[in-house]
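Supplementary notes for students who missed Thursday's class. We covered one full example, reproduced here. Read the sequence, then the structure, then the short commentary at the end.
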Amino acid sequence: MKKFVIRRVLLGVVILFFVSLIIYSIERSLPTSYVKGKAMAMSQKQGAKPYEELLADLNASYGLDKPVLQGYFVWLGDAIHGDFGESWVWTQPVTEKFANVIWYSFALSAVAFVLEILIAIPLGIISATKQYSKADYAVTVFALIGISLPTFFFATILKWIFSINLGWFDLYGIVGRMHETYGSVGKVLDMAKHMVLPIVTLTIVSVGSLMRYTRTNMLEVLNADYIRTARAKGLPEKKVIYHHAFRNTLIPIITILGSSLPGLFGGAMITETLFQIPGIGYTSYQCLVQGDIPFTMFYMTFLAVLTLLGNLLADILYAVADPRVRIN
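Structure (token representation):
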């Protein structure tokens, strides 16, 4: 196991190098340029330098006058030493801005992730054990609705019902207008209230695929010979399902859950943007559309690291879930 982890980490470093190079190349090729917009704004001021001269000065100060490959290695050298530069949009160090917004996204995604597991896996098991029953059809319809609903559409419906018609929640934001007048507990409850609709949105649109995946794999296991043997021995049905069958269903489920790690810290860009939650997803979207290369590079590289870690964690958990699985 130790050798396997070391090999995967070394392979991950190589993959990360090429992924970050591709990301940097794409960033340098985007039509949206923060530097061009800033140079244009500065050139319109009275007594300012011409636009071309300002653009050349700004490109030189940000290192954008160098070729893509040379500029990438300059960024890589700084990144290895923990210096990811300063965000052009937010005018503060990238890591500092990241630390300020990541916990909103983590709280949002973590709660939705737990709810997804608590809802999808039990319902998937029920649907498989009661195949072609009314419960199975109801779960299938619910899952297909969740899979089919676009995030922006479902979020808009929730806002229209619960914010506009019923007035239970604010349309957007992480705090209300009276937030500063509340005590410590009141402030927490105010933020929690503003998280309800985004969490419901994330949970409903993601629960369907895991539910169907659990049902499909559970049905495959329930039809296996060793399950029929366990039932023939007279074992209780609950023990057959939850001890023998479900344990063997865990391996494909772990694959899905391991790939969910980037989502926990990567933010939900569409949901956060629709509800204007100041998390990492909404922040990175603003940086992306304005051509903020330092912040976008850090964010995309961070997601790549999480993806590699999620895959490694899933491989390690295979052996935990099923002792028959051994990594050579």
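Commentary. The longest helix spans residues 184-222. The CA atoms of residues 319 and 326 lie 6 Å apart. If anything here is unclear, bring it to office hours.
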